[in-house]
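Figure caption, in words: inputs first, then the predicted bound structure.
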Amino acid sequence: MTHPAQPKASHYINGEYVEDTSGAEIPVIYPATGEVIATLHAATPAIVDQALDAAKNAQKEWAAMSGTERGRVLRRAADIMRERNHDLSVLETYDTGKPYQETSEVDATSGADALEYFGGLAGSLTGEHIPLAGGDFAYTIREALGVCVGIGAWNYPTQIACWKGAPALACGNTMVFKPSESTPLCALKVAEIMVEAGAPKGVYNVVQGYGEVGAKLVTDPRVAKVSLTGSVPTGKKVYAAAAAEMKHVTMELGGKSPLIIFDDADLENAVSGAILANFYSTGQVCSNGTRVFVQKGIKEAFLARLKERLDAGIKMGDPMDPEVNFGPMVNENQLNIVKKYVALGQEEGARLVTGGGYPEKDGFWVEPVVFADVQDDMTIAREEIFGPVMSVLDFDTEEEVLARANATEFGLAAGVFTADLTRGHRIAAGFEAGTCYINTYNLAPVEAPFGGSKASGVGRENSKLAINHYSEMKMVYVSMNDVEAPF
Ligand SMILES: NC(=O)c1ccc[n+]([C@@H]2O[C@H](COP(=O)([O-])OP(=O)(O)OC[C@H]3O[C@@H](n4cnc5c(N)ncnc54)[C@H](O)[C@@H]3O)[C@@H](O)[C@H]2O)c1
Ligand SMILES: CCCCC=O
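Bound structure (nicotinamide-adenine-dinucleotide present):
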């Protein structure tokens, strides 16, 4: 019998499901059991062409609608997503293995927030009037870029499809979205919902594929902008390919973010922050604060309480069980990466405080891991693991810890826990990171910009700032006077 996760077809183009079985197979593996639950096919060149043509043909008509009309479609889509939260969350759990307890709270909800927020902004996307000398003036017109390509990672498939689609569509662009090959299911539902909400055919399309399909989309002359969520190495390739054609980009990439806990911090909140910064979504969150710097006076109390909370609180098991709060890794490859780093941490002399076991069952399971006595030059403190592995490092002074926190190529996120708010703001000002937290961690409300600096990215998602990354300004100079020429 066909599994309920199997979609009608692999791609969604021009308002309908489309299949071409000559493309490479994409098996969808349920991470909790290792079972193949669906099979899709990568887009062939003909499918990529069809999707880009559909997006190109739909764009002018979509941009010609008033912002209010476009916004209404996005807000309807948000309502539909909320109404279907249960089904969408079950599918997100099949796609990623994340517990239903999480997906039912965060994923479709966060996607719906983006659709609602950018739907609300769509009617107010204007230019400005600029008075000039002698009665002349200029005005600016905010214009859509054209066809935008979105390329997703596997940790938040629904959210990523919406964080890219909502601002793009609000500005009058159309989109071709390629989900990660590890999690191809959820974006198809986003595309279906857009059409059901009234988006004209071709406005939001989904094609499946591995990296080659992404690469083909990035260099196509019909494409004006590329927004990638992925790793730094992929980001460098995609940014370079897009730059060769002078395309706009948004790069949401990886990190190795610092979380600093001072002696004066509220211990319970600091432990909660460190848990949110390392173990939510089984550690598969880009902004995770995986280098946890703990001031020496509070270190042993912090480690003891953290271990207690993990021992008592982690519930691994069937991700569909609403009591379960810790799922498997997304796939075997990612599990093996975690295993490699856990072994490396031990070889390099870090102290294993808890975890490091691999439950013997089908699927891609790992216990959450905490290493203490980690040194700055250890591999586990320098490289992104993208799994539930926390490194705890000691520090003495504020000056020292800030320099060590910033000593990384990455700059996605950073956090500080302290009772001294003056110090909290001082540290936030000193962080070399795009997304900073004082006395909390890993919140990403749609109203606030999200993204990284340094190697972690270019541009921002969410908030009014995202509009600038999906539109450009045309200036019109109007003379009210005779034209003076030198000869
Ligand atoms: N900053 C953020 O908002 C954010 C959010 C989630 C994940 N991430 C990062 O994503 C990474 C994990 O996701 P992943 O393993 O899917 O990343 P990845 O870089 O392997 O793949 C990301 C996407 O890029 C595609 N791709 C691969 N090569 C390509 C190429 N040459 N041209 C075009 N597309 C190509 C893949 O098919 C996939 O869809 C981590 O580094 C994580 O930190 C960042
Ligand atoms: C906190 C939101 C994270 C999105 C990236 O993985």
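The mean pLDDT is 98.
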